[in-house]
Design brief:
The structure is a homodimer of 204-residue chains. By secondary structure, chain A is mainly alpha-helical. Chain A contains ten helices and no strands. The radius of gyration of chain A is 19 Å and the shape is elongated. The N and C termini of chain A lie far apart (51 Å). In chain A, 25% of the residues are buried. At the A-B interface, helix 9 and helix 10 of A face helix 9 and helix 10 of B. The first copy, chain A, binds a DNA duplex (30 and 30 nucleotides) through helix 3.
DNA sequence: CTCCTTGTTGACCGTATCGGTTAATATTGG
DNA sequence: CCAATATTAACCGATACGGTCAACAAGGAG
C-alpha cells in the first residue's frame, strides 16, 4: 500500500474507500471488480492500483480500517461504561450510525467479510463471526444490571431477538439502498423505546 | 423451457432447482454462472441448457415456481383462517419451514430477486417488494383480533419489529449455511412464545 | 519559457470466465 | 442389435478481469 494515498484530501480518500466498501459489500471478494471500485470512486483503475498495489492489499486495508474505526466509535460513545442494558444498546447503535455517516457501507462490508469463505481472505479475517458476537454478548452480560428486567424473561433469548431485529432492519435498509443515518438513528431510538417497554418491569 | 425436465425423477428435478436457487441467491443475476449451477446440480452445463434454453428462462422458471410454491404452502397451512395474530404468525413460519425442507434456498432467492435491479429481471418480477410486504401487512391487520394486545402498544411497530427479527434470524442461518428446517422450526416456535409473552396482556 | 517532479490516465496484455452450441458418446428399451 | 433418447466433453466467440506501462497533464522552481 502506497503512503501517498493518505496525503490525498480526506474527502477524496473517503470517496475511494466508500466505493470499495460498497462494491465489496455487494459482491463476493472474487467477483468484486477493481474497475467498478475505480469508477464508483471517480478515479482510474491504474490509480487505484497505484495506491493499493493489488486487490488483496486493498481488501486488507478496508478490513483493518473497519476494525479500527469500529473500536474508536465504541470507545468514543463510552458504550461499555454503563450498567443499563438499554443505555448500552443505545450507545452501541448511535455509534454505529455515527460511523455510517462517514462510511455508509462499512457495516455491510464487515458482515459479508466475516462470512467470506475463500482461504485467501479467511487468513486476513482471523476472527470468526460467531466468536466475535459471542464475545461481545458475554461482555454485555457481565456488565449489565439484571434487576430491571421482567422476572419471567429469558435474557439471552431477548438479547438474540433484539440483535436479529437490528440485523433484519439494516438488511432492509441496505437492500432498498436507503442508508440514511438520520432516519436510521431515529428509528433505532423508537425501537429501543419499544424494547424497553416490553422487556422491563416498569415498561417505560 | 423443455418439458422433458418434468419427466425426470422428482428428486433429480429438485436437486437441479435447488442448485439454481442456491447460486442465484448467493450471486446477482449477472454474476451467477450457469456452469456453477450445473456442477452443484450434478449435471453437465449442456444438459442444463438443454432443459431450460437459456439463463433468463431458467430464472423465470425459478421465480414462478417460487410464487406458486409459496402460495400453495400458505394455503395448505390455512394461514389466514384465524383471527389470532400469533396463530397466523405461527402458521406462516411453519409453512415457510415446510417449504424450506424441499427448497432450502428458495426464500433467500426470492428476497434477492425482489431487489434485483437490472431491467432484464425487473420485467419478470413485476411486483416490488415493498408493495408485496405492505399488502400482506394490510391483510393481516384487517383480519387480526386487536383485543389480546397490551393497550400501550403500537401494533404496526410490533409487526415490523417481529419481521425484522425473522429476517435477521434467517440471514444468520443462511450466512452460516445452517439451513436446518427442524432447528429453525424449533427456534421459530420459541421466538413466537417470547413475542406472545411480551406483546399481549396475559403474556402467555 | 524550460526543466523536473508528481499525479493521473488510456490503452494494452495475458488469462480466465461466461453463455451458448454441437458433434459425439452413453444409455435405454424394444 | 438397433434406433431413439439422454447426456456430455470439447469447443467458440465475446467479454471481463487483475495488473502494467508508457504517455500525458499539472504545477512549481529556476
Amino acid at each position: 500500500m502506497n503512503d501517498k494515498f493518505f496525503k490525498l484530501p480526506l474527502e477524496k480518500q473517503q470517496r475511494i474507500i466508500n466505493a470499495a466498501y460498497k462494491v465489496f459489500s455487494q459482491n463476493s471478494y472474487r467477483k468484486a471488480p477493481m474497475s467498478e471500485i475505480a469508477d464508483e470512486g471517480g478515479i482510474s483503475k491504474a490509480l487505484l492500483f497505484h495506491y493499493f498495489g493489488n486487490k488483496k492489499e486493498l481488501y486488507m486495508y478496508l478490513w483493518s480500517n473497519a476494525i479500527e474505526m469500529t473500536r474508536k466509535a465504541v470507545r468514543e460513545y463510552n458504550t461499555l461504561e454503563t450498567n443499563d442494558f438499554f443505555e448500552m444498546l443505545k450507545r452501541s447503535l448511535l455509534s454505529k450510525c455515527a460511523l455510517m455517516r462517514d462510511y455508509p457501507y462499512m457495516y455491510a462490508f464487515s458482515l459479508r467479510a466475516y462470512y467470506e469463505t475463500i482461504p485467501e481472505i479467511q487468513e486476513v479475517i482471523q476472527e470468526n463471526y460467531s466468536d466475535v458476537s459471542n464475545a461481545s454478548k458475554r461482555i454485555v452480560f457481565e456488565k449489565m444490571d439484571l434487576s430491571e428486567f421482567r422476572d419471567d424473561m429469558n435474557l439471552e433469548m431477548m438479547y438474540d431477538e433484539i440483535f436479529y431485529a437490528v440485523d433484519g432492519y439494516m438488511l432492509k435498509k441496505y437492500r432498498l439502498d436507503r442508508v440514511i443515518p438520520d432516519e436510521i438513528e431515529r428509528e433505532f431510538l423508537d425501537l429501543i423505546d419499544l424494547w424497553k417497554k416490553i422487556y422491563t418491569k416498569k415498561g417505560v
